[in-house]
Amino acid sequence: MPDIELPKDIVSFVALGDSFTEGMDDPYPDSGQTPTGRYRGWADRVAEHLAGHVGEVRYANLAVRGKLIRQIVDDQLARAVELRPDLVTFCAGGNDLIRPGGDPDELAEIFRDAVAELRGTGATVVVFTGWDPGFQPVMRHLRGKIATYNMNLRAVADEFDCPVVDLWGMKPLRDHRAWSWDRLHLSAEGHRRLALRVCEVLGAPVDEDWRAPWPAEEPMPWQAARQQDLHWAKEFLLPWIHRRLTGRSSGDGLDPKRPDLEPVPACGSDIR
To answer: What digits encode the pLDDT tens for the residues 104-153?
Structure first.
């Protein structure tokens, strides 16, 4: 892992990506969890935490839900370069991989070119691997594609001296409580644990451990689990398939929630 030396007085931080970085499904308490509501997420939590340890954090989040990696590069990369941040987080490719035909090697080439341009500004670029879907019955068939993509991303990180947040290795994310009802976006607690991990990679002190075990819970009866699967298919899978067939995206017409570098208030001594 490369050493990270962020400025001690003012840190500028830009987050790039899709819904994972936008913060779904982690709504701010006053926003409600609606298609157009404002989400918090791990990146906001990291910015708030960093603000408690340096003089000032200026933060932009350009991520928009539903975006493919080429769209992220086309829509967000130039703006990120223009802002000249000290720190960039870059997580992309997940929406491509869950589609039929998403080639992890081709996606990694797009990813590499974007990292090269970002690193050319002098910014520290934090790379995220894909998470392990092996615990999810409907998604586990994607493990091979995601693992191949991850190996490519690690090669990119090595080439450009980028720190890596290894989502695949985060075992607490293999618990259903780390994920929201759609089984694709992190829950509020999942986002909080990921924020702890990102701060650990950045060398920012935290008071809690993202590895903390989940509380014990009673196993769900088989019939109830199958009922949940049917509900998930009706409420999420079928609408997702319909959007794919009609060429639409959940992010169509949406703008980034924080398009400019703006000061962030400190959240205190710990991530919450």
So the answer is: 999 999 999 999 999 999 999 999 999 999 888 778 889 999 999 999 99
Domain hosting residue 52, numbered range: 10-263
Is 269 part of a structural domain of the chain?
no
Residue 3's pLDDT is what?
Answer: 65
End-to-end CA gap in the chain? 26
Task: Burial-class residue 19 by CB neighbours within 10 Å (0-12, 13-18, 19+).
Answer: buried
- Provide the CATH number for the domain around residue 252: 3.40.50.1110
Among the listed residues 152, 239, 155, 165, the one whose alpha carbon sits nearest the alpha carbon of residue 201? 165
Tokens 């909080």: give the residue: 192
Residue of 62, 91, 58 lying closest to 77 (CA atoms): 62
Rg (CA), the chain: 18
**Number of domains composing the chain:** 1
Q: pTM of this prediction?
A: 0.89
**132 lies in a domain?**
yes
Q: What does the pLDDT read at residue 34?
A: 40
Q: Phi-psi bin for 155: left (phi > 0), alpha (psi -120 to 50), beta?
A: alpha
Is residue 271 assigned to a domain? no
Q: Residue 126 CB: number of other CB atoms within 10 A? A: 22
Residue type, 110: I
Q: Is residue 62 part of a domain?
A: yes
Q: Where are the alpha helices (DSSP H) in 51-142?
A: 69-72, 78-83, 94-97, 104-119
Question: Which residue type is seen at 22?
Answer: E
